[in-house]
Specification:
binds tryptophan; 8% strand; Tyrosyl-Transfer RNA Synthetase; Rossmann fold; 5 strands; three-stranded parallel beta sheet; mainly alpha
Length: 338
C-alpha cells in the first residue's frame, strides 16, 4: 500500500501532548521541566492540548496497587491544583486509552531493535540496579505510541526525554516508509531555562533517585529536605564561584533574574556581606512555601472531592480515546489489519 491509498495524518492543526509517570510524587524537576509548560501553553496557544498520567509506564517499576492508585489521583490533583484549565486542555489517564498498546505493537513490528537497545534511560536504570523487565525495555515504544496516537506535533518535556522523542520520530518514520504517511512526526519542546533541574544531591532530580523534592512539601519536612541540599564547609566570607553552588541553582528556579543575580554577585564578592548557605536555605524555603501556597490550598480542597477529579478524568478519557481510535484505525487499515 502506498501513501496515495492510505488515509494520511491530518496536516496542519497543532497538538501538544505530554505525560507524567505516576510512579512517585510530582517534584520540582517535573514542575519546572514540564508541568509548568503544560499549564501555561493552553493559555497562550489555542491549539489542542493533551496531558496524561502515565500509569502504564509507572507499572514498569510500581509493585503496590494501592500506592499506584493513590499516585494517579495525586498526579491528577496536582495538575488541577496548579491550575490546568481543563476546558482548554484534556487531562486523562494513559490506561483509559488501551489503543496505545495496539499502536505499540505496530511500531514494534517495523522498528529496529537497536533503537531500544541504545536508549540511555534504560541503560541508566539498569546501572542503578533496577532489574530489567520486558516492559522497561519496551518503554520507549509505548511512549512513541502515546505520542503518535494523537497526531501530536509538540511534546513539552524535560531534557531527559528528548531521546525518547527521537525514538518516536524514528519509529514513525520506519512505519511510514513501508505503509505510507500514517504517523505524524512529533518534535520535543524544552523549557528554555529549566530543562534539567538538579536534585538535592546535585544529580538530575528524579523520582527514582531519592533526591527529589515534592512540590507541595511544607513546614518541617520542607526544612528537612532543603537541609539535605549538598553544600561544602567553606565559610560565608570566602569568595566563591556561584556556578558551583547547588543552592544558587535552586534559588534560580524561584527568584526573579535580578534578585538571583544579586545573590550570585554577593557570593562571588565574599566578605562580611556575603550570604552563607544557611541564609540561602532560609530564602529557598520561604520561596517554595510562597510559590506553591495557593496550589497547596486548592489541593486540599480537591482531595475532599474525589468525584470531581474522577469526572475530569472520565471526560478526558472520552476525548483522548476518540482521537486514538481514529489513529489506530488509520494505522490498521494501512498495514492490512482491517
Ligand atoms: P517523569 O517523572 O519521569 O514522568 O517525568 C515527567 C516530566 O518531567 C518529563 O517531561 C520529564 O522530562 C520531566 N522531568 C523529570 N525530571 C526532571 C528534571 N530533573 N528536570 C527537568 N525536567 C524533568
Ligand atoms: N517517559 C515519560 C517520563 O518519564 C512519561 C511519558 C510517557 C511521556 N509517555 C509519554 C512523556 C509521552 C511525553 C509523551 O517523563
Amino acid at each position: 500500500m502506498n501513501a496515495a491509498t492510505t488515509p494520511s495524518a491530518p496536516g496542519k492543526a497543532r497538538t501538544y501532548l505530554s505525560g507524567v509517570q505516576s510512579s512517585g510524587l510530582p517534584h520540582l524537576g517535573n514542575y519546572f521541566g514540564a508541568i509548568r509548560q503544560h499549564i501555561e501553553l493552553p493559555l497562550t496557544d489555542p491549539a489542542e492540548h493533551f496531558y496524561f498520567i502515565a500509569d502504564y509506564h509507572a507499572l514498569t517499576t510500581s509493585r503496590d496497587p494501592e500506592e499506584l492508585r493513590e499516585r494517579v489521583r495525586e498526579t491528577a490533583v496536582t495538575y488541577l491544583a496548579l491550575g490546568l484549565d481543563v476546558e482548554r486542555a484534556t487531562l486523562f489517564r494513559q490506561s483509559d486509552v488501551p489503543e496505545v498498546h495496539e499502536i505499540t505493537w505496530l511500531l514494534s513490528c517495523t522498528g529496529g531493535m537497536g533503537l531500544l537497545e541504545r536508549a540511555v534511560s534504560f541503560k541508566e536504570k539498569i546501572e542503578r540496579g533496577l532489574k530489567p523487565n520486558i516492559g522497561l525495555f519496551l518503554y520507549p515504544a509505548l511512549m512513541a505510541a502515546d505520542i503518535l496516537a494523537y497526531d501530536t506535533t509538540f511534546v513539552p518535556v524535560g531534557a531527559d526525554q528528548v531521546q525518547h522523542i527521537e525514538i518516536a520520530q524514528d519509529l514513525a518514520a520506519s512505519f511510514n516508509a513501508i505503509y505510507g504517511d500514517v504517523f505524524r512526526r512529533p518534535e520535543a519542546l524544552l523549557s528554555r531555562e529549566h530543562s534539567k533541574v538538579p536534585g538535592l544531591d546535585g544529580q538530575k532530580m528524579s523520582k527514582s533517585y531519592g533526591n527529589s523534592l515534592w512540590i507541595f512539601e511544607t513546614g518541617k519536612l520542607l526544612s528537612k529536605a532543603v537541609g539535605r541540599i549538598a553544600t561544602d564547609s567553606r565559610p560565608p566570607e570566602e569568595p566563591k564561584d556561584p556556578a558551583g553552588i547547588l543552592l544558587l541553582d535552586f534559588l534560580k528556579l524561584f527568584l526573579d533574574p535580578e534578585d538571583h543575580g544579586q545573590w550570585c554577585a554577593r557570593t562571588l564578592a565574599g566578605g562580611p556581606g556575603a550570604p552563607g548557605y544557611g541564609h540561602m536555605k532560609q530564602r529557598l524555603i520561604q520561596a517554595i512555601e510562597e510559590r506553591f501556597a495557593p496550589a497547596r490550598a486548592r489541593r486540599e480542597e480537591l482531595l475532599k472531592d474525589p468525584a470531581e477529579v474522577d469526572r475530569v478524568l472520565a471526560r478526558g478519557a472520552l476525548k483522548a480515546r476518540a482521537r486514538a481510535v481514529a489513529v489506530r484505525d488509520r494505522a490498521f487499515r494501512a498495514c492490512g489489519l482491517r
